[in-house]
Input
Amino acid sequence: MKRPKVLIVGAKGQLGVVLTRYLQDRYGFDQVIASDLHETPFLIESKYEKLDATDQHAVLEVVVKHGITHIYHMAAILSAKGEEKPIVAWELNMKTLINILEVARISKVKRVFYPSSIAVYGGEYDRTNTDNDTPLTPSTVYGISKVAGENWANYYYQKYNLDVRSLRYPGVIGYQSMPSGGTTDYAVEIFHRALVDRAYTCYLSEDTKLPMIFIDDAIRATVEIMEAPQDKITRRTSYNLAGISFTPATLATAIQKEIPDFNINYQPDFRQQIADQWPQVINDKKAQEDWNWKPAYDLPRMVAVMLSELQKEFTSKTTLD
Output
């Protein structure tokens, strides 16, 4: 199989950084073009293009210049940040997506990945077993933009036969970077504070159960759906994706098994109202059936890896200082 030539839009984000490294290892360093609006040391060390995805001509230039065959569109303003500036979030999230889809259509890109989210859910529905066909009535502008994006993805497939694929990510937990404005960010922040301060103040209530996924599983699922045979993809809006569901109290208990003197307290803020609209448990049966999805990480394994990797990072920084 000929190796794809990949463009990652939003490569400095939580998912983008890890996805870039994963695809460099999988397809070859020169096959992956990382792009973002702002440079970072990691991006400069990669094959990198500074790119404003709100500029369709600029996106087209990069795609043509590098002969791109596959695009991963990872740029977006997330749920909590989006509620602070809803119009800005809507305009950026939608304009960048339309630009990617149009450039892909014009340039005959073979495949596009569009990240959706559990934020598409809201209102009255079964939060304890939320399946792929649950009606989508989001409560945030981020969720609204993701529902619209799913429908645009389906439209470009139906009208132009553009092979767009999508996953509804739960909260993503990773050690490689800090999160950037999502409602589930506590599940990353808590590990940093546990190691540094032995204490954390959580902005969600202790019994707020939400679906999460360890970043290694999230990245593997992203690549697996993109590599799946086209006839296996039956959902052209988006697939539910499940990993682990837990509450802040459950996560704190798991951390305390490794760090006994860790303490947590709770001061719910505006993010609690967002979380209360989201699923507690995601049913991803369609992903399992269509392209054999299965997570590899349970809660104890994820906690062990997070603490181990972050401790290495903190030790390395202390040594350098």
About this structure: The longest strand covers residues 111-117.
